[in-house]
Design a protein that fits this description.
single chain; two-stranded antiparallel sheet; alpha+beta; 192 residues
Length: 192
């Protein structure tokens, strides 16, 4: 970790009161922690907007789905950028509004441009782009350059039916026929 440096900040009293409320509401331990987080967020956002490095991000949109041609325009833009839009989640908020979360992968500045295009459509009320993480660089497929970036592979735990972990209780084999549970005082009918 780098060496800490101290500096002072002059603020209007109203702004300081608002900042202190922000610190308490954000559950920051100190003003310094809150300022550090704000600076990191701001610097990350700025570099994200101009960066050539591949990143993962989310874009959250709230829009009026009854607005003429809006849904069509949103879908067209997403399909025109299908190498950047890798997943989406659609939620019906009420009879008039939808929330859509897009998972994006690509160069930071390209994602900022795509977000601006989507946010700029009439009927889109909110559009928040959030940097999630840096991504793997583009891969080459069959010796040719690919514009589609592949997700890195990583191991997943085995399915629940084949799990193994150290614990004291035995496991019953899974079967499609289930033995009925016998309640106290009941007898199980069995034929021998």
């Amino acid at each position: 970790m780098s060496e800490l440096a101290r500096f002072s900040v002059s603020l209007e009293a109203d702004l300081l009161r608002a900042f202190d409320q922000y610190v308490r509401a954000g559950a920051f331990a100190t003003r310094s922690e809150a300022i550090r987080q704000l600076l990191l967020d701001s610097l990350t956002r700025k570099s994200f907007a101009t960066d050539q490095a591949p990143v993962l991000a989310t874009l959250t949109l709230v829009y009026e789905h009854h607005r003429p041609h809006l849904v069509e325009r949103l879908l067209t833009l997403q399909h025109e950028h299908c190498e950047q839009v890798i997943a989406s989640l659609h939620v019906h908020m009420d009879e008039d509004r939808c929330l859509e979360v897009l998972v994006l992968r690509g160069r930071g500045r390209d994602l900022v441009r795509l977000a601006e295009s989507l946010r700029g459509l009439k009927g889109v009320h909110r559009g928040e782009l959030t940097l999630a993480e840096t991504a793997q660089p583009p891969t080459e497929v069959a010796g040719a350059a690919s514009s589609v970036e592949q997700a890195p592979t990583h191991p997943h735990p085995p399915p629940a039916s084949t799990h193994s972990h150290p614990h004291p209780h035995p496991h019953r084999p899974h079967s499609s026929t289930r033995t009925p549970r016998v309640r106290p005082g009941e007898r199980r009918n069995s034929r021998h």
